[in-house]
Amino acid sequence: MAFRIGKSVLLNFGNDLEPLFIFAGLAFLLLIGPLIRWYYMAMTHASFKLPRYYLLELLPFSIIFLGSFFVTKDWFETNNQQVVIVFGSILIFIYLHFAFYIFLAASMLKKTRKSYSKEPQTKSQRAIFSWLSLLIVGFIVIWISYFLNIIEDTVPYIIGPIMYSVVVYFLSIKAFQLKVTDIDGNTFKKNDDMAFFNEISKLIVEDKLGLEPDVSLSSVSKLMGKSTQKVSEVINQYAKRNFNDFVNFHRVQEAKKMLLDDENDKYTISAIAFDSGFSSLSSFNGAFKKFEGITPSAFRKSVRT
What is the DSSP-derived secondary structure letter of residue 210? Predict the structure, then answer.
C-alpha cells in the first residue's frame, strides 16, 4: 500500500521516473483484489485456511510485476502505437480486475449476511458486518478516484493517492472503534446451543410433541439425551421463556389455528383445549390470555364478527 502511494507521488512530482516503478506500482493493484477476497473469507468463515490453489489468483500480479523489470526507459518513452496499446491494455485490465474483486467481496458479504439474517447476531458478528461494509465503500472510493485519472484527466493524478491515504486513515480509525483486530472468522463458528435449540423446537412444534398433555422437561431431556438443566438453559436463552411457557405458547398457536378454522365451530372451547395439549380448561384459558391478551372464547367471537 505504501509502495503504491509512493509510486503515485513520485510519478506526479518526480521527473524521469523509471518505467519499473510505474509498472510495479500498477502491479500492486492486482495484489489488492485477491487479498480482499481472502480477507473477507477469513473474517466470515470459522477456522479459515487458504487452499494452495487460491495462490493462482496471484498470477496476474506476478506476470505484471516481473514484466516491469524488462520494460526499458527507451522503449517506454518512444510513445509509439505499440507502447500506447500495451500500456493502455494493462491499465484497463488492472482496473477491471480490481472492480471485479470489489464486486466479488460485496457479493460474499451479502450472501453471508443473508444466511445470518434469521438468527440473533452477536455484537462481534455485527461489528464484522459493519467493518466489511465500510471496507467495500472505501475500496469503491479508491477505485473511482484512480479510474477517473485515466479518463481525459478528469481529476489531477495526485487526487488518487490522496484519496487512497484518506480512506486508509479513516478505515484505520473505524477498525480501532469496532475492535476488529480482536475478532476473526471464529465469530461465525457454528453455535452448538443454537443447533440444539432448533432440534428442541422441531420436536415440540413440527413433530407435535407439545400437543401431548404429558410432555415435560424431563421427558424432552431424555429424548434429546441431555440433562434437564441443559434443555432448560437453552430454551431460556433462545426462546426467552421457561420450558412450560415455551410449550404453552406453541400450544396456544395451535389452538388459534383451530379457532380460526370454520370447520371447528362445532367443537367446544374445552375440546380445542384438550386437542391443543392442555390438561384442563382453566390452564388453557390462563395460557391463552397470557400470550394473546384475551380469552379463547373472546378470540373466537372476534374472528367471527
Answer: G
Q: How many Cβ atoms sit within 10 Å of the Cβ of residue 143?
A: 19
Tell me, yes or no, if the pTM score tops 0.85: no
Retrieve residue 262's grid coordinates: 370454520
For the beta carbon of residue 20, count every other beta carbon within 10 angstroms: 16
Does residue 155 register a pLDDT over 80?
no
DSSP letter for 202, please. Answer: I
- Cβ-count burial of 293 within 10 angstroms (0-12 exposed, 13-18 middle, 19+ buried)? exposed
The CA-to-CA distance between both ends of the chain, in Å, stands at 70
Distance of CA 102 to the CA centre of its chain: 15
Contacts of 5 (CB under 8 A, 6+ apart): 161, 164, 165
263: confidence class by pLDDT, cuts 50, 70, 90: confident
- What is the rounded distance in angstroms from the CA atom of residue 254 to the CA atom of residue 269? 13
Q: Are 147 and 159 in contact (CB under 8 A)?
A: no
Contact 284, 213 (CB under 8 A): no
Report how far residue 177's alpha carbon sits from residue 170's, in angstroms, rounded to the nearest whole number: 11
User: DSSP string covering 98-122, please?
Assistant: HHHHHHHHHHHHHHHHHHTTTSPPP
